[in-house]
Structures are given as C-alpha cells and as structure tokens.
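Model: Ready when you are.
Researcher: Fold this.
Model:
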Amino acid sequence: MLNFLRRRFDELVTGSFLFLILVLLPFRPAVFATAGGRDLAVWTLSTLILLFALLLVAARFSPRLRPLLHIVLQIGPMLVAVLGYVSLKLFDASVITTWLGIPSLDRWMMAADIALFGKTPYLWLTQWGLDSRLFLQIMSCFYGLYPFTPLIALAWFMYKGDIAQFRLLRRALLISLYCGYCCYILMPVSGPLSLSAPATPIFISSTLTYTFLMDNFRYANDCFPSLHTANPWLIVLLSWRKLPRWLLAIVITACIGITISTFALRFHYGIDDLAGLAWASLMAFIAPRTLPREAAQ
C-alpha cells in the first residue's frame, strides 16, 4: 500500500486538489474583481477542457497522437499545480487565516530584514542606483518567467528521455507548490508594498496587464516562503549533474535574475528569499524519499 502511494502520489494529490475545487464551487463560487477576469478564467478553463477531450477522442482512433496524450498526462499535474495558485484568490483562502486568528506577519518580516540586512534589500538596490526603468523592466521579465520554469524543466527531461529525473522533479515541485500554498494560509505575508507604496509606481505595477492580473488572480498573502526563489533553485539542486554546462549556466542565470527580481520589484522581503532557499533545500531532501524505492535508488 505504501509503495502504491509512493508511485501514485502525483496523480492522487492532483485528483484530490481538483476534487476539492469541484466541492467548493457550489458552496463558495469563485469571486473575480472584474468581469474580464471571470471571462478570461472561463475561456481558459473551457478551452483546456475542450482540447483535452478532443485529444482523448483523437488518440483513441489515431495511434500517432498517443505519445502526445502521454506527454499531456505526464505534465498535466504540474500545470494544475501552477494554475492552482489562483484558487487561493478566487476562493478567498484568507478566510481560513482569519478564522484561525492569524494576524499579518509583515511587520515581523520587515523587522527581520532590518536586523539581518540593515534595511529591506530593495533599499540597497535603490541606494546603488539600481532602480532605473530599464533595470526594473529586466527584472519584470525575470519575475514573469517564474511560472514557466517548472514546465520548461519537465519538458526538457521528457525530451531527453530521462523519465527518472522527470518524475523526481515533478514530485519535488508538486510537494513544494502545494505545501507552499498551505504556508501562505498559515503564515500571511503580503510583502513590502503592503507597508509602503512607492511615490512613483515601478514599471511593472504601472501596466494595465499587471493591474488586471493582480486584481483578479494574485493572492495577497503569498510571500513566505518565496516560491519564486525556492522552485527555480530546487530545479538546480536536483538537476545539477543532469544538465550540460551551457544549459546549467543559463538556468543559474535565470535563477539569480528571478531571485533578485523578487525584492527589486518590492514583492518580497529578504527574509522571504532566505526562507525560499531553505525551502528548496528541504524539498530536495524530502522528494527523493517519497519515490518508490527502486526509483529513489
């Protein structure tokens, strides 16, 4: 039984999450800030379901499409986990935080930053002149890269045929994401912008796309630990000896850029990023031990 759970953990946790969403829908309908947000969510979900249904039918009659169906089924759990983040906002998971009586921890995080770094890290960048529009545009690109990193990593190892590494990465990232979402509920931290908004909006926050996404899909208390920092570095920790040097250099550069972007754009405290690095190490330790024995070996 235990080995069965180890083998099917990814499918079981994905199915459990989807079942929870189906249960919540009738009793607590999703709340959108704008009609456009609702329309985008409905259109996206409907399109994905329709495409998957068409692929199922087509693969039944065309053996050539079965490898594509296999790829979709293998990457599907990760896609659900990444998109599952928005459910925290749409179903207002902060109600659980309030019910548990957990206050905002932002002032504690700011105090920790001051104790560790002398000031919260984005002020260091400002002091060094790294607050120009061009720099913040670059940081915005790195920040926006984050949701795609798990999917890109899994696609690479599937392309290379390294199924053992693919399953290890998928397992680690799934545990990291779902446990991270639970931390957001139990440790509510909204980031430096919640304490003091800048006099002049930074580049990313002045765009209509950013405002639309933040209003409709961003969960406010999503800072501790920083999964933006944790998951890219988790990929590096687990794939260190599996990637060619040129690709490893690109991945590490992306990780550094994403990590710096978290506090350069004032979304995270420095302590969030330190917790993210610790989280990556913890997930890298736990994940192999949840695999079936032969896979772990």
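Researcher: Now this one.
Model:
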Amino acid sequence: MSRRCDLTGKGVQTGHLVSHSNRKTKRRFLPNLCNVTLQSEVLKRTVRMRVSANALKSVDHRGGLDAFLRKANADELSPLALELKRQLAKAEKVEAAPAA
C-alpha cells in the first residue's frame, strides 16, 4: 500500500534531520493518512479512501465529498479522485436532464 493520499495525491517527502552539531542525515516526512468512508449524496453510495488529515479538513470545509470534487481542479486530484469526479459530473447531468 502506497503512502499517498487518494484525494490530493500528497505523498512522502524527503529532507534532512539536522543535529545540534549541524550533521545532516536523510529522513522521510510521511503524510498523516487516515482510512475514512466518505458519503456521496449525488452518487448515493459511500467511498472508502485513504486520505490525508489536511484533505479531510478541506472536504469538511467545502461541505462534503461532492462539493470538494466539484470545486477541485483536475490537475490537483489523484487518478481515483478524477474517476469519482467524472462519475459525479455524469450523475449530475442525468439528474439535471428533464424527464420526458
């Protein structure tokens, strides 16, 4: 399992651990990932994802998964989130179409 956020694509970063004597050794900065189940009202289903805590705060701030995906740019999203965004747009188009 990769250490990558399923919504934003945020992953591991590298840097240095710097001691008091200014000696530098390599270290890894891991994202704060949480296993969450998010509800989509438009798709009428739940989606299980591994999301960073920062992205989860953004989802709550924007008003849910549907609003987050609607507002996010395609280049900011991971492949899984892009697929969800496409499904969301397709479902909204079907809902908006007048019933004949």
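Researcher: Key takeaway?
Model: The first strand starts at residue 13 and ends at 18.
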